[in-house]
Amino acid sequence: MPRTSNRLTFAVLATGAGVFSMLQSLIAPALPAVQHAMHASQSTATWVMTAYLLSASVFTPILGRVGDLVGKKRTLVAVLGALVLGCLLAALAPDITVLIVARVVQGIGGALFPLSFGIIRDEFPADRVSPSISNLSAVIAAGGGLGMVLAGPIVGALDYRWLFWLPVGIVAVAAFVAFRYVPESPTRARGGVNWLGAALLSAWLVALLLPISQASGWGWGSPRVIGLLAAAVLLFVLWLRSEARAASPLIDLRVMRLPAVWTTNTAALLFGAGMYAVWSFLPGFAQTPTAAGYGFGASVTGAGLLMLPMLVAMFCSGVLSGRLQPLVGAKALLVAGAALGAAACAILAAWHSAAWQVAFAAGVFGLGIGLAFASMANLIVHSVPAAQTGAASGMNANIRTIGGSLGAAVMSSLVTGRLQPSGLPAESGYTEGFALLALLCLAASLAALLVPARGATGRGATTGPGRVVAGTPGGTERAVASTATSTSAAASASASASTTA
């Protein structure tokens, strides 16, 4: 593909994935405004976040697999169209029910992550694959941060509906350009979609994420939470049996067992817990009135600006990681990124009395996110057969989301579990929560040390569009290749109460 075509393709992929990532965080700070405008209860309003999370979790790996089978460009255009429809429906929603349905449709856009990584692997020259994946990961990470920064000004100057009107035109143009100019990937998986496996995957993800995201309202010991978590375990076991027996599994379990894959996914689970919890709770901390003995009484816009150092740092480090990877390797970058996340959370736990301290810690965490996001994507993409890129990277994004949900739920329990007489959270909840997140990020860094040293370049590395080199000792890669077979719950304290999503 000519370099100009590479650039146009990357621009389309970055636009779609960046907008979807922004929609993940854009609505969280505006949730109280949505609740008030639509006269909804707090528990109902949280479904605006939960529906999006569940939908993305279900569609990301399934459509990643569909893209591997029928063509990544064709699936990409369909997913972009669904994202446009979801944003349009949300902008016009007359009530909270329609808005929740619109968020389900928007969640289909989660498949943009694995599809984009797959297209880059299939179409770009070998020497541009890793830098391009790093740059795209930087855009995805920055999109999440940008949503937190832009939400306040957009709602303040216009209306919450413009959070959805603005992406409509941008994504529609991206869909048109993708249809006209993005080439179809030559690499296809064989077989079909294991629809039983897809149904079971969807069922256990919903049974797991739903009680986690709603546990603060339902209660961790409630029959609904316990029953759904038990169902998630049972459905997960049934899903494993279905995938192991299927001629064309949705997720090839042999790929998931590759050392570079399971170790990277473990790091993704742990780091995702810390990352999404920080994204969800740091703005709420900044918005806490100073009368609580901590916090800065910031507005939604002010809290977003406090997150600006994180946004800038994650984008810069994400782009830089593409240049560093050939020198130090993706494994080292993942270890360093998770370690920086641990350091940032430790700083937040120990020093958070001044705005500059929080801004500094946010910047450090941003550096970690940029390095970790890019390195995880590169490790997965280069560790699996080309025909499994979409499904494998989709599961990595899902595992990171599951970790994020767990981290946000635990943080929510700590923050909202101890309330002052005024109804505001006690400072100790935040302190203990940030300390726990530091431990989770440290565990992610230790898990990353287990990633095989050749994980980024040996197993399944591409030598050109659509070609794979078998580089796994013992023939594991050849055995796998022969089959040819990317939120979070949020909670933030406001002046009057805590809103949990």
UniProtKB/TrEMBL annotation:
The chain crosses the membrane at residues 42-63, 75-94, 100-120, 132-156, 162-181, 193-212, 218-240, 260-282, 294-320, 332-352, 358-381, 402-421, 433-451. It is found in: Cell membrane. It is a multi-pass membrane protein. Residues 461-501 are annotated as: Disordered. Pfam families: MFS_1 (PF07690). Keywords: Antibiotic resistance, Membrane, Transmembrane, Transmembrane helix, Transport. It comes from the Bacteria. Its main location: membrane. Residues 481-501 have a biased composition (Low complexity). Residues 9-456 form the Major facilitator superfamily (MFS) profile domain. SUPFAM superfamilies: MFS general substrate transporter (SSF103473). This is MFS transporter. It comes from Kitasatospora nipponensis.
